[in-house]
Amino acid sequence: MIKNIRPHYLLSLFLVLPLMAEQKELNVLFVGNSYTARHNLADVVKQMAEAGNPGLTFNTTSVIYGGRTLSDHWRLGTQHIVNQHAVTEEKIQATVDALKGAVKDSKDRYAPAGLKRQSALLKTFELNRDKWDLIVLQSYRDDLKGEDSLYMQYAPKYAELAKEQGARVILYVTTPTTQNAEPLTSTPDKAPILKKSESIAKLANRIGADVAPIALVAHRSQTQRPDLPLRFINDPHLNQTLSYMSACTIYAAIFDKSPRGLPISEVTDIRFLEGDKTKDRDGLPITKVFSDKDRADLQRIAWESYQEFQKLRAL
Predict the structure, then answer these.
(1) Among 14-28, 242-256, 270-284, which stretch is predicted with the lowest mean pLDDT?
(2) Is residue 113 part of a domain?
(3) 3-state secondary structure 11-47
(4) In whole angstroms, what is the distance from residue 270 CA to residue 286 CA?
(5) What mean pLDDT do residues 90-104 have?
(6) CATH of the domain at 283
(7) Exposure string (b/e) for 18-32, b if CB count within 10 Å is 16 or more?
(8) CA 244 to CA 242: how far, in whole Å?
(9) Most distant CA pair in the chain: distance in Å?
(10) Which DSSP letter does residue 285 get?
(11) Are 27 and 132 in contact (CB under 8 A)?
(12) What pTM value is reported for the model?
């Protein structure tokens, strides 16, 4: 149970969470980059959501641009997908026209993909006016400068579009700069993680969002289970272990309840060792199956980190 949360946030929680618990179907949009794509994170969250809420159908859609941030997504037109229930032809066309100009720049690697997606949307947008119930907004190195971070500037833009359709926002706050590729012998400094978490807490309170605070998750794991690496050695991305905890934390943020006891016990990466689709980038099995102890620890660490963040945002 959440305690000591600011009154306006607590009121919104009391109004929204019971309604969500009663819903039998949730339409969920994930906006991000490879930190969402790797390990099919949205699908792992779906498995957890449906396992933890019998009878629930958790529909997921993802808009992914590798290495891109929320500001990049805005330039590429993702806001129109967030706002699909009300977007106009004129707004999509304006983005298409801008991207047609951008593709002429050979250095703009993502304009072609954005143009393709927006051109397809232009042809079909009237056929899909469904509203989203949840919108998950991933950060990626755009949340490290406190109030001056681009994440602080763009998350509210998406949140406003979400609010207009009655959707909740989950801030999936990644931590690419604090992942360990090898077991640790000492605990990393927590000060910069707390500083970042405090700025995210202010943002969450301001826009009425919930948060999956992965930096706190990683640090707690490094403190309590220093034997567990959180990224690949031969690949800078989060590994199956941190991806599993990320899914657990997103689950906690969505339902405000612990993931402990969920039966989901494995994660499979989407990137494999050259020539062998059964191995991950470090040459280990591409599907990580967690022992009962590890699964319990990862679920507990995710929940405790989520609770720690909730106390931060109440300050």
Answers:
(1) 14-28
(2) no
(3) HHHHHHHHHHHHCCEEEEEEEECHHHHHHHHHHHHHH
(4) 8
(5) 97
(6) 3.40.50.1110
(7) eebeeeeebbbbbbb
(8) 5
(9) 57
(10) B
(11) yes
(12) 0.93
Q: Specify whether the CB–CB gap between 82 and 158 falls below 8 A.
A: yes
User: How far is CA 177 from each of CA 17, 41, 184, 193, rounded to the nearest angstrom?
Assistant: 33, 19, 15, 10
Q: Are residues 84 and 128 in contact, defined by beta-carbon separation less than 8 angstroms?
A: yes
Beta bridge mates, 82:
none
Alpha carbon distance 152, 169 (integer Å): 14
Spell out the residues 6+ positions from residue 27 whose beta carbon is closer than 8 angstroms to its own: 59, 61, 130, 131, 132, 133, 134
Distance CA 277, CA 298 (A): 26
User: Is residue 166 included in any domain, yes or no?
Assistant: yes
CB 111 within 8 A of CB 65: no
For residue 145, the 8-state DSSP code is S
Question: Is 181 buried (19+), middle (13-18) or exposed (0-12) by CB count in 10 A?
Answer: middle
Q: Is 236 helix (H, G, I), strand (E, B) or coil?
A: coil
Distinct helix (H) and strand (E) counts, the chain: 12, 7
For residue 103, how many other CB atoms are within 10 A of its CB?
A: 15
Q: Give the pairing of strands 134-138 and 168-173.
A: parallel
100: in domain: no
* Res 14 pLDDT > 60: no
Please state, in angstroms and as integers, the Cα–Cα distance from residue 62 to each residue in 42, 105, 134, following that order: 8, 26, 12
Q: Which domain holds residue 267?
A: 7-86+129-313
Domain count, the chain: 1
Q: Is residue 135 part of a domain?
A: yes
Mean pLDDT over residues 85-104, rounded?
A: 97
Across 192-220, average pLDDT: 98
Contacts 24+ apart (CB under 8 A), 291-297: 292/265, 294/228, 295/265, 296/260, 297/224, 297/225
User: What's the mean pLDDT in 140-160?
Assistant: 96
